[in-house]
Amino acid sequence: MTYDPRSAHGLTLALASGRDGAYAVTTQLNGERDTLAAYAWQLETAYEQVALLRQQYYRAETRWPAAPYWLRRQQ
Q: Is 19 helix (H, G, I), strand (E, B) or coil?
């Protein structure tokens, strides 16, 4: 999963995701059940939120309505 550079969340969320993933693996290996499934759910939820936020950012840009770059992202 990647984050759009415009959102300025890349580095902090990458670090948090690494931390949370390591915790999920460690606890799963130590016998706790469902920690990997919970982590997968966390990532899916985060992806949905980021996709919605990205859509809002790109739809808010109105300065270049005919530019191909923006046309593709505002559909």
A: helix
At 7, is the pLDDT very low, low, confident or very high (cuts 50, 70, 90)?
Answer: low
User: Where do the structural domains in the chain lie, given as residue ranges?
Assistant: 9-73
Question: Could you report the per-residue pLDDT of 28-62, keeping only the tens digit for each?
Answer: 999 999 999 999 999 999 889 888 888 888 888 88
Task: Report whether 43 contacts 17 (CB < 8 A).
Answer: yes
Distance, in Å, from the CA atom of 53 to the CA atom of 46, rounded to the nearest integer, reads 10
Exposed / middle / buried, residue 63 (Cβ in 10 Å: 0-12, 13-18, 19+) = exposed
Model's pTM, two decimal places? 0.73
Q: Which of 5, 7, 11 is nearest to 57 (CA)?
A: 7
3-class SS at 51? helix
